[in-house]
Request: fold
Amino acid sequence: MSQPLWEPSRAQIEATQMHALMQRINHDYGLSLKDYADLHAWSIDHLEEFWSLVWEDSNVVADRRGENVLARPDAMPGARWFPEARLNFAANLLQRRDDHPALVACDERGRRRVLSHAELYTQVARLAHALKASGVTEGDRVAGFVPNSEHAVIGMLATASIGAVWSSCSPDFGFSGVLDRFGQIQPKVLIATDGYTWNGKSIDTRERVAQISDAIESLTQVVVFPFLDDDPDISDIGKAVAWNEYLDNDAHEIDFEPESFDHPLYIVYSSGTTGAPKCIIHSAGGTLLQHLKEHRLHTDLRSDDVLFYYTTCGWMMWNWLVSGLACGATLVLFDGSPFSPEPSVLWELAEREGITVFGTSAKYIAACEKEGLAPGQQHDLSALRAVLSTGSALAHESFDYVYREIKQDVLLASISGGTDIVSCFALGCPIRPVYRGQLQCRGLGMAVDVFDDEGHPLREDKGELVCKRPFPSMPIGFWNDPQGERYRDAYFDTYPGIWAHGDYAEITPEDGLIIHGRSDAVLNPGGIRIGTAEIYRQVEKVEGVLESLCIGQEWNDDVRVVLFMRLREGMTLDDALRDEIKRTVRANTSPRHVPAKIIQVEDIPRTLSGKIVELAVRNVVHGRPVKNKDALANPEALKFYENLPDLQQ
Reply:
C-alpha cells in the first residue's frame, strides 16, 4: 500500500454528511458498515434503498415521489428511476431565498457582480414570465450562447422552471460550431451575449449572433445581454430584444411546472471531432439526484460553502457547478482567461471570495506549477478545504505540487466522468485518504468496474471502464435518435447490457482508480496496450515542455509511438532533449512506452472545451480526413502535422 498524501482526522470524518449517511444505514437496516468500501458495496447492491435515501436526506422538493423507485432494474438501457415522481429542477435550486449571496460573477476585467438568493429568484421569475410570453412551453428548447456569467444561470433556471430544455455553448464557438449544435435541436429562443473578453482582448460577437439568428429558422426571439459593452447596438440582429427590456415586467413569483423524473432538462454535446456532435439529453430528476449525491456526499457541500469551478458554459462542469445552488451554497463564476490579467488571478479570487471548494482542470494545475506559482505562500487560502480537478488525468507530480505549494490540509479530488453522464464515475471521498496519482473512489450507487476484452473484471491491471448497473444520470437518449440505435451503439455495443465509457483505467490496491487515457487513443506497439496519459505524465516532467500529444502511427505492420511537443518560447528540440525525454519515459515506465519519434510543433489542437485531440492528429498523420474541424478551438494547428518528413522514415 502507498503512503497517503492526506488523511482526514477522525473528527473530520465524523463531521461529514457521508459518515452521517453511513450511520443512518447502520441504524435503519441493522448493519455495521465501517468504511467507504462497505458503504459503496451496499449502495450498489441496494440501488433502490440507496437512491431513496439520497432523495430523503437531500430534501428534494417534489409534488410527488411515488412508491416505485426503479422500474425495469435489469434493463441497460431502459431502466426508469422514480417513474411516478413529479418535480421541477429549478424549484430545487431556488429553495433558498434570503439575502445570502447566491452568485458572485467575476471576469478578467476585474468586474464583480453579486446576486443574493432572493435577487436570483426574482430575476428567474421575470425571465420565466418573458419566456412564457414568447410562447415557450414544456419541451421547447432555449439555447444559450453565453459566457460564464449570471445571465447563463438565470437563463437555465427560467427555462427549467417552465419545463423547457436548456442547451448552451460558450461564445468562443465559431458560427459553424454553434450551428452544428443548436441547428440540430431547433430552439425557440436564443439567449446571447454581445461579446466576451479573453486574455485581455475584447471579442464582439454581435455579427455571429446575427448569423445564428438568420440561420436557425425555429428561433422566434433572440435576447441579447450586455457583457462586453453596457449598451450594445443590436439593431443588426434579427428578432433581437435587449435583456433589460425583455425582463422589464413585475413578475415576482415562479409557477414551477411539475414534470416527470425523466423529463428532459439539458441537451449537451459530444466534442464532435469525428462527425456532427451527438446531442445528449439529460433528465431533470437524474441530473438533480446525481448532483445532490456528488455535492453533498462526495464533496460535503453545505449552505455556508463557497463553490468555484473554472469552466465555460460549453463544458458539463458548468452544469455540475450550477447544481451547487440546490445545497444553498454560494457559487463563484469566472469568465475569461485563467492567466489574465496575471497568472495568479484565480488564486486571488479564491482568497477574496473565501472559496472553500476550488475546481479546475488538471492542465491548469500543471500550468500553475510551470509558472512557478506558490498560491499557499502568496495568498490566504485558509477557507479552502477541497481542490477538485478533472478534464484529463491529474499527473502524480501535480498531486505533489498541490500539497507542497497550495495547501497541506486539503482534500485533493481528481474526478472523472463526463458529458455522457453529466456527472462522475469516480471522484472525491471526504472519509478516505488521498493517494498520489489516484482518484479516491468509485461513486456511490455507481457499479463501476474495469473489464478486459472478454468482459472479465480486472484488479491492478488496465482495461475498459464500465458501469454494470443503471444509475439516474444515464442519458434519456440522443436527439433525433427515436429508436435509440445511436445511443446503444455509443455505450452498449462493446459489452451488451453494460455501459462502456471509453476510458482506459485501472483499480488500484487502495481501491482507488487511475485513468490512463481514452480507450480510442490507446497505443498498441507490439500488441502492448499503453494509455497516452502514462507517457504525458513522464514527458511533462521535463523542463521546457509545455504540453505534449501522443499517437500511434501505423508503421511496418506494427504501431510506433510518436510524440509531439510544444516547448517554451525560444526553445528548440535537440538531441540532448530527445535523449532526456526517452530516458525519463524508459526509467519510469517501460521500453515499449519510449517514443520512436519525437517532433516539436508550434501548437497542439484541442476541442472547444480544451481537450487535446489525439484522434484528429492521428487521422492527419495517416492522410485521413478530419470530419469536423469546427469542433476544434484551433483547427489551424492541424497543419503542423501534415506530411511530416520525420514520419516518412
Q: What stands out?
A: Residues 117-133 form the longest helix (17 residues). The chain is about 30% helix and 25% strand. The mean pLDDT is 94. The longest strand covers residues 545-555.
